[in-house]
TrEMBL record, chains A, B:
<dbReference type="GO" id="GO:0071949">
    <property type="term" value="F:FAD binding"/>
</dbReference>
<dbReference type="InterPro" id="IPR036188">
    <property type="entry name" value="FAD/NAD-bd_sf"/>
</dbReference>
<keyword id="KW-0285">Flavoprotein</keyword>
<dbReference type="Pfam" id="PF01494">
    <property type="entry name" value="FAD_binding_3"/>
</dbReference>
<protein>
    <submittedName>
        <fullName>3-hydroxybenzoate 6-hydroxylase</fullName>
    </submittedName>
</protein>
<keyword id="KW-0560">Oxidoreductase</keyword>
<dbReference type="GO" id="GO:0004497">
    <property type="term" value="F:monooxygenase activity"/>
</dbReference>
<feature type="domain" description="FAD-binding">
    <location>
        <begin position="21"/>
        <end position="362"/>
    </location>
</feature>
<keyword id="KW-0274">FAD</keyword>
<dbReference type="InterPro" id="IPR050493">
    <property type="entry name" value="FAD-dep_Monooxygenase_BioMet"/>
</dbReference>
<dbReference type="InterPro" id="IPR002938">
    <property type="entry name" value="FAD-bd"/>
</dbReference>
<keyword id="KW-0503">Monooxygenase</keyword>
Length: 409, 409
């Protein structure tokens, strides 16, 4: 990676840029996943992270087979399995009545059909595994690097950070998340506020209250709210996510974690769900946003990936999975690039390969969330009957998302 | 049947009343069905009909196995099958896209499971068969008899008609339909306007336009509208029912058949559905009403049955079927009555036997109608997915309604 400190803008230094060099903006799960994939391919990769260290915040995260298949190809699945838990089943219950709505196998035939396991683990564990692997594979991971602009001239991308440093690369991957500053290069769109807020908690198992189920993912569906519970770190931790329609967030305000608002949102739910709110962290909450799908992620030699390209609501638990798919897709597409001039076609191919699929995931996640949160009798009845009609052998709702064929299109 | 013309009110003439006599108010399908069942049992039965003849208006009607099983036990099923059509399948389609949503077997395993056929026939044909059979069985069918009141004194019911005639009977069955005047004896409730209006048409098959399917019941589900099509009279007639939310009826007005309102209601539907509106009668329409379930149908020796007791929206096609179940249930319960004093217990037993079931049918019919008519994206998606998830071997939605066990409880 050619690093030129303080290069004045406009100076043509193309001769100093080594070919095949890739610069990644953003050191989250998507960024380090892409770095790992591309380093394994033999590319020279630099990752610029704004924060002072490569570290993820948050709680648990779900890795579906469409992502774990890729983690295995990168040689990190064993570590992921070691740090995570493979839940037996995904169980949905009505949060108001407690009634079980459906109970989906996540091992056995499911894992066999999709050729890879379903795993839940701590976000920071996944991130750490990917950072370590990317480093070992040769990625140059840099912190405190706050990118302010990317420009392409003569097939060279120039990346400027807030301290005046200018990096040059054949390709810049903008993987800087929901609030991506690089997205402004391709779209003037804004994030879309869902009105829903997530509270999370990943706490030691022996401190968690009312843990009935230590081996499954359990989802309670309530009116304008839901709760997800699963174990983490080989069952030594318990993860809880509570997501609800926040009156303050819906009004456009942002109110920091508000215990009263949280309690109120679950007041119609069974006591077990209400008590489980005590397993959440008290002082932090995550307002939930996504964006409308856009067609174009490319500006010159810059390409958006991950949440920067297609941020989604978390109802399908696919945010990180889709970022991993992106990394894998870009790895495959770029594998044949030997001449720097071929990058333009590679970026376009990635865009056309991935846009429809990720747009579908974005849209389906929204709809899935709506279906979870219905609060009027008829839609609730239809939703519950639909869930109860599901059978393990009916794979129509999962094949498009988890199936191996679904990704390579 | 003791008939006393011009008996002054208040005169005690109990001695003149023969025991075991039953008077039925209302000569529609429910009334003549009850008359048939009770005459077969050896009861003396008089039916009073307000109209100048025993005749049904309307178009087609569906007889599900819960009713055809009973028609068979009365010895009239062969005639019904001869006049009707046994559809092969019940097919639901999305009226806006034309997509098939589900396709339910109505013969084979279905008929076997429920021990009786599914038949569609003309209302007037079913009515005529029942009238003829009731007459043959000894029922006294009287027209132009407009009942104005029923009173019970000393275990004798006195029925007064508008011309001053007073009838006395051990039991009066009030089967005088949705707008039952006798219901006022047990409830001050009002009919509930659904806002939906039905247009019907039963026309010769060779005059019907765009008949693609002559052997099934086809239902198109649209936003705030639906359409049902099936053949009648051994396939020589074609029956169409269009039901939609009428703006004028929803405002509380009653507007006679309005072609413009009809066309507007189906304007989002596929051309095939819009053209099929031409198969409807032009000058008649039926605003649709039901009532809330009530607990008590008994006042002295008067008992409500059929629509007078539990009027329902037609979405389960169970109005006539439930009236036939009523007739059968009353027949069974009254079979053991030998002493007139036992009637009080028999009426109470009928009430307690039938109230929960018919209330469930009333409520489910409403919900079923709501599910058919959804007009917003998420409920429509859930409804369509639910319909598409249905399988013939899944009998959970029909067992409670059509199963033999369902009725005898």
């Amino acid at each position: 990676m050619a690093l030129v400190v303080g290069e004045p803008e406009g100076v043509n230094e193309d001769s100093g840029v080594a070919s095949q060099e890739i610069l990644i903006v953003g050191g989250g799960i998507g960024g380090v996943a892409a770095a790992l994939a591309l380093c394994r391919q033999g590319r020279k990769v630099t990752v610029l992270e704004r924060a002072p260290e490569f570290k993820e915040v948050g709680a648990g995260l779900q890795m579906a087979p469409n992502a774990t298949r890729i983690l295995r190809s990168w040689g990190v699945l064993d570590q992921v399995l070691e740090m995570g838990v493979q839940p037996k089943r995904l169980i949905f219950r009505d949060a108001v009545t407690g009634e079980q709505l459906t109970d989906a196998d996540l091992r056995g035939e499911f894992a066999e059909r999709y050729g890879a396991p379903y795993v839940v683990l701590h976000r920071s564990d996944l991130h750490a595994i990917l950072v370590e692997a990317a480093r070992k594979a040769g990625a140059d991971l840099r912190t405190n690097a706050d990118v302010v602009d990317v420009e392409t001239r003569d097939d060279v991308a120039r990346v400027r950070t807030s301290d005046g440093t200018v990096y040059r690369a054949d390709v810049v991957l903008g993987i800087d998340g929901l609030t991506s500053s690089l997205r402004r290069k391709v779209s003037g769109d804004e994030v879309v506020a869902s009105g829903y807020v997530a509270y999370r908690g990943a706490i030691p198992m022996d401190e968690a209250l009312d843990v009935d189920d230590r081996e499954n993912v359990v989802v309670y569906l309530g009116p304008e709210c839901h709760m997800v519970q699963y174990p983490l770190r080989a069952g030594t931790m318990f993860n809880t996510v509570a997501v609800f329609k926040s009156p303050s967030f819906s009004r456009g305000e942002f109110v920091p974690a508000d215990q009263q608002e949280l309690q109120n949102a679950y007041s119609d739910c069974i006591p077990q769900v209400q008590r489980a709110l005590l397993n959440l962290w008290k002082t932090v909450s995550w307002p939930m946003y996504d964006r409308e799908p856009i067609d174009n992620w490319v500006d010159g030699r810059m390409l958006l990936m991950g949440d920067a390209a297609h941020p989604m609501l978390q109802y399908l638990a696919q945010g990180a999975c889709q970022a991993i798919e992106d990394a894998d897709a870009f790895d495959r597409i770029s594998a044949s690039v030997t001449d720097p001039h071929e990058w333009n076609a590679a970026l376009a191919e990635f865009n056309s390969t991935r846009a429809d699929r990720t747009a579908r995931v974005q849209r389906t996640a929204r709809t899935w969330g709506e279906a979870w949160h219905v609060n009027t009798p008829l839609p609730k009845l239809l939703r519950n009957l639909l869930f109860k009609s599901r059978k393990d052998e009916d794979t129509r709702y999962t094949d498009w998302l988890y199936g191996a064929d679904s990704i390579s299109t």
